Amino acid sequence: MKTTQIDDKPLKSHPGFHIWFFNHPVFYGIGDQLHFLFKYFQQMGGSVTCGRQPSNQRCNIVIENFDQQAVQHIKTFCQSRGKSISIVLTEHVDIHTKDSLPNYKQLELKSSSIHLHGKSVDEEFSYLPLPVLIQRSNCLLALREVTSNYFRLGDLPEMKGFSYLAHNRKVDTLWFPKLNSAFIDKTEAPSYDFIFLGAKTEFRESVINTLKDFGFTFVPTFNGVSIKQRHIQYKQARFCLNIPQDETWPWLSPMRIISALQAGLPVLSIGTNDTSAISVCTRQVPMVEGMIDTNQIRDMLASHETEALKALIAYEELAATDNTMSISLLNSLNSWALTDGIVL
Q: Across the chain, what does the average pLDDT equal?
């Protein structure tokens, strides 16, 4: 592999990575994150495996979703083997001022300056109960001593001020990987307007029912299908629909968008006005006073093949904007491997 030079000293090649997903009992729930990680590290010249057991020969990456039992399991492994992990962050935790952290050992959440899922702690949480979010955040913090790196997939979650909690370590961005042979299948005209795959919430059900009332059609779906089965379902729709968890959720879902684009399907997001990186290849229709502009949606549906092509081109350009691993990240990964006794 080609080496990069810094001060006349060649960087070593990437270490091998292992995605340790024991803390996710339902495999399909993290399938898109796994595909992202595999594509990213492979395109950067790395070797990737995954499994429910940790690896002694590779650097272990864990996708966030921790309870006390998971924390203890990870700590036992790391402390007994002289290892550390890196964590893929998925929850939106934003710290707006350092003064809001009276206790660095756990997230006490006594200040409106701390936001979970975009809300301060004195607001109502409809998607996940606040105690669940607090527990998840505190379990994440409990792993700081055995965590080497923090990653995010693309530029979300933003994790504003998270370095205050993570002993001043930054969150490294793993940029959007290139898609593998994405295509637009024109062999059979789609029979439905939309497909939506995701957990049910009151807001999502309301949006879907509103669209159905206006005559829009949906592919019959059920959760738990394989990625191959999902692609078959995608072929039946003109657009993949993105609907936020509730009306206050400001972000797009990059994993949903990437999976649809991989199948050549454009994405329409209802009720968002996000400006994160993935927005360049996503059509968004904000809701105004609870109303949806259905005329705009009908125009998009009429040109869905053109919309798909434009979205794929936009994603390709997005992926190309940062298609090399930064020197600092590569150095950090190599340092992690050496500390863990991994042969490079």
A: 86
